[in-house]
Amino acid sequence: RVLSCGLKDFCAHGGGDAGPAAAPAGEKRVPKIASVVGILGHLASRHAGSIKQELLRMFHESLGSGREHHKATVPFLLQLALMSPALLGTVSAELVDSLQPPVLNQLHQHFSALPREELERLVGVVVHLISQTSAGAFRLLQFLVGTAMP
Fold first, then answer.
1. Tens digits of per-residue pLDDT, 83-102?
2. Among 72, 79, 8, 80, which residue's Cα sits nearest to residue 51?
3. Of 73, 80, 127, 137, whose Cβ has the fewest other Cβ atoms within 10 Å?
4. Closest Cα to residue 87, out of 77, 74, 97?
């Protein structure tokens, strides 16, 4: 539920590709993503497996859907990873394992329609996250080299 609420709020504040939501005049809300990161950090000590499973489920589910909130899921998950190295470490190994050719093709299709500036920003975030990854860094680099080679 925490992730779902965070994603909805992320979409409502113009996160990712979902576009800004219309807020009533004079209403200024602060996105709840910092609260989501805090709650997940607190829950991680007892529910790390469930959190990891849900993050991976959200990622894979978003690639097969054209629904608006699913378009913002990957940028939302990237933002969570930027704000919480612990969450990044929790899913990085399994995420690398799941990036098989069909998933990479889905990612390509998912982001091919983005404007160049948005795509470059997302790539910058991914590169930053890769450089911040310590656990599983060798496997990640092996994946990148293996994927880049014909």
1. 988 888 878 888 888 888 88
2. 80
3. 127
4. 77
Give backbone dihedrals phi and psi of 32, rounded to 5 degrees, phi first. -95, 10
Exposure on the CB side of residue 104, measured as CA atoms within 13 A? 9
Contacts of 45 (CB under 8 A, 6+ apart): none
What pLDDT shows up at residue 78? Answer: 92
Please give the C-alpha separations between residue 146 and each of 91, 99, 104, 140, 141, in angstroms, as whole numbers: 20, 12, 13, 10, 8
Predicted TM-score of the model (pTM): 0.81
User: What phi-psi label fits residue 135: left (phi over 0), alpha (psi between -120 and 50 degrees) or beta?
Assistant: beta
